[in-house]
Amino acid sequence: MLRPLAFWGALALCSIPAFSQQSGTIRGTVKLERNGDPLHHATVYLVEVRRSAESNEEGVYEFRDLAPGKYTVVAHLHPFSDESKTVEVAAGGAGTA
Q1: Is this prediction's pTM over 0.85?
Q2: What is the mean pLDDT of residues 12-19?
Q3: Whole-angstrom distance, CA of residue 50 vs CA of residue 64
Q4: What are the residues whose beta carbons fall under 8 Å from the beta carbon of 64, sequence distance 6 or more?
């Protein structure tokens, strides 16, 4: 089984206040575990709201306008194993995972 996605090690996945005190943002970077290289075109899913984003050339992705709560974030890039993490978005505050 391939497991070179470092979705969380150097990720700094966090929630950050967005447009108002009632919404937040999840943003992070998908990287290779073995050398820290960013992975572009990885698909990142936000399970609870059925949204997806694609990482850019620097491996960065972002979900905006999220209601406060817990979210399951899943990174996928064939042929690697998926990686997932639970992240909490706080109203009007910032949190880290």
Answers
A1: no
A2: 40
A3: 13
A4: 18, 19, 23, 25
